[in-house]
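Quick check before the chapter quiz. The format below is the same one you will see on the exam, so make sure you can read both the input and the output lines.
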Amino acid sequence: MILVTGGAGFIGSNFILDWFSQSDEVVINLDNLTYAGNLQNLTALAGDERHVFVRGDIGDSALVTKLLADYRPRAIINFAAESHVDRSILGPEAFIQTNIVGTFRLLEASHAYWRDLSETGKKDFRFLHVSTDEVYGSLTAHEPAFTEMHQYQPSSPYSASKASSDHLVNAYHRTFGLPTLITNCSNNYGPYQFPEKLMPLMIANALAGKSLPIYGDGRQVRDWLYVADHCSALRRVLEAGKTGETYNIGGWNEKTNIEIVHTLCELLQEMIGGLTSGDYLDLIIHVRDRPGHDTRYAIDARKIEHELGWRPDETFETGIRKTVRWYLDNQDWVASVQTGAYRDWIEKNYIRQRS
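Here is the expected output.
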């Protein structure tokens, strides 16, 4: 079995659903169910004995140690993180506690567990740390894309905390021999993304006839990666990645934020028709740019392609169309998240199950 941390979040829940489409191997899902953790993402697994959910914090050393002793996983995949740049600007401390202190405590427990495994168990064990391209900082329009050798130059409290966690993971490999792997992914999009992020926010606002706020001139460039492709890359890294190595995962899709919003408006127009009072594009407004906003991210994903044979399956055109379709077909999920009703669902269902 494997232990997945942060498995009720956007990428983590997609990974677990994808995992069970490929394997019957049991997943222990440790998630603290903070604001972006949503067990409704995993309702398809209700009653499925392959999925064991545990509510808890990666910073709880006693809990993590007990889980490792009780379940004896062959691998840990660490998604658990605070991940929203804007929130890190308003309140950095939670990012320090989860992304740095939490990762440190998870590493400590993992190292102690790994040290006591048999020689075969030690050889087979993996600690896969899921990180971000934001640790590399910002690129100008004509600079080459980030490779795994790019210097870390984080700009926000979020990216600085993730950079710190990456360094800790590398240190535990080099100092103690813990068999670690790190992945740095570009901007993910797709089903179950919390609607504070660009695509789900724009879709939800457009459907409600609300303004579509864009930071600055909207010319910031990101590389966009469909979440299912990210999941397939993670499976491949876990399966065949070389311990101690970092693998960049990208979609080969550099787009500006304003391009993204225009594409979303055009797809909504095509799929459900326009607003009664005008065009979706008329809802776009430009707001003051956020502090330290990185100009451009771009991932060079040739290493994972050449060494592990992975490339994304989705083009940007197919991925964004699937994304819009999912949000149109799952407006109850969006409404539940926006109103906070999912939190009531978690409390009622989770507490009842535990009592």
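If your answer matched, good. The first helix runs from residue 10 to 22.
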